[in-house]
Amino acid sequence: MNLASLRALFDGPNTRGTSDRFWMAFGLAVFVLLCYPLVASTYAVANAALFLLYAILGLSLCVIWGYCGILSFGQVAFFGVGGYVFGIVGINLADGIGAALGLLAGVGVATLFAFVLGYFMFYGGVRDVYVTIMTLVVALVVHTFMGQTAGSEWAIGEAALGGFDGMTNIPNLAIGGFELIDTAFYYVVLLALLGTYLGLRALVNSDFGRAMVAVREDEERTELLGYDTKRIKLFVFTLGGALAGLSGVLYASWGNYMNPAVFGITFAALPVVWVSVGGRDSLLGAIGATYAIEWFSQQLSITGSEYALVVVGGLLLVTILWLPAGVAPAVADWLSEKQSSPAARGHEEVAD
Amino acid sequence: MTYDTLNLLFQFLDSFAFIVLATVGLAVIFGMMGIINLAHGEFILVGAYGTTLSYGAGLPLVAAMGVGVLVTTVFGLVLERTVIRRLYHRPLDSMVATWGLSLLSIQLARIVFGNTLSQVGTPLGSISYGPFSYSAYRVALAGIAVAVLGGLYWLFMYTEFGTQARATMEDEPTARSMGVDTDRIYLGTFGLGSALAGLTGALYAPTITMTPELGASFLVEAFVTVVVGGSSVLVGTSLAGGFLGVVNATFTNLAGTFIGQVAMLLAAILAIRLLPEGITGLLDSWREKRAEGEQ
Q1: Which of A78, A43, A41 lies closest to A61, judged by CA?
Q2: Could you tell me which of A87, A95, B9, B103 has the fewest CB atoms within 10 Å of its CB?
Q3: Contact B172/A at CB under 8 A
Q4: What's the pLDDT at A1?
């Protein structure tokens, strides 16, 4: 397989950056991210790892909302379940193999959870705003549940769920006895994000991806053309759950800690903010916005300001009112106008 | 035995009142305007804080509640003019935007008022029966919930505003061409929904802890009821409230708050499976059948 046919896999009408310039900028950005740990402090690298793992959660919403038209407010439910399951397995099977099995179990349970919820919703005829409400309600109900697991009866093996205090002592992710911390963990997250991004690019530009976009544009017409729209929606929703679960596993390993706040309404809003601001049908926009917004929030919190959430909420409001498509499409349009050649469209809005 | 039955009855009244009051503001705005207000919890927050703060400033409780409702109404009217009106006919965007509003309001409340406020005590004492006792205030809330539904029925069925509002909901262009000022109707309806959310906050202020996140504790019940009830504000909300009240009371009584909520959620999923348009849809098809039968 030569380079051109490899690129054909990732290029298509459903993603913006397709020019040579785009791929060169993309390669440069990846190179910068790869070199980042060489020049930055351990603390800065750990923060960057957090923002990059959040970006996977952002992508999980981007693909189901931006490309299939399913607005889920409950991605954090799969994120949290993934993290908690990783913790339960990791704590109980402490040595070596536990963390690797925990990764599989965490992603697996999150995927199953999304599949079951999606099955009942899409095959039960739940649509549009009702799907959105349902997903949010599920996250809030899990929040209530996890909040009341403080007692000692709420322990699975060695792992106490811990109620609002959360689950502590979650082990680090490890491969064959080698613990992934600091720089190694950063590279694993970066690799996972890159894989997710390229995988989703290939997916949305495939035949299946065109069917997904058709469902977003007009579900009834797609169904009349002979597509099984329920199955398409269920597949995409389940995939979104799996990615959110992966992000949750990485999060649990990052902080060695989970608490029910990840199911709460404030955290649930963040993926929606990232994707809305970045541009709901731009994968790279979602990554860039996630990184930028979380970095900014953290900078504000470090200075002792409490205004981070006010700014984030305001940003969401302003985006919906004045830039409903998000930042990345606007940047892409601006760049392509500047070059006045539609073939050379690229968007150099890159994470970091 | 009879005491247990009585206990279940009180539990039902409590659940019914909570569900109806938590939902009614959201239901008016959703049913009339097709907008899901995700900041609904924060409207309740404004009502509760308005009440608690003005009670703390020395007003009698009922007057303080009036202040809570008034403040929330003004809050809602200002938002309608500045934000909500730009989002009519964009249901998903309106949800996302109101969520931004919600984040912003919660955090501003935290910055301005801190993490808690000192509480208004629960008025009216308690009712004792056998081994159980029950807060009389909560029984009064059930009465108020029924009165609110009755009041809305009167408002929508027997006043000029109600007629115009129903016409606008049914067919906006026609209503406008018949001389209805639909812009004013939208403003009024949103104000009404806000006032009702504020009333809920005012009424529950003495019974819940005053934190910036208190709105979230109403959301599960409110959203589930709107989903089950469908777009008909009155009939949908009261029937769904009754149905979910039974489900919630029974399961909360048997196995605690969490199971009560899960049971409501499952009931909602089941209800949507059987009735895609909610209870409203069931009633519509029933009416159609009856109309066909009469012909």
Answers
A1: A78
A2: A95
A3: no
A4: 56
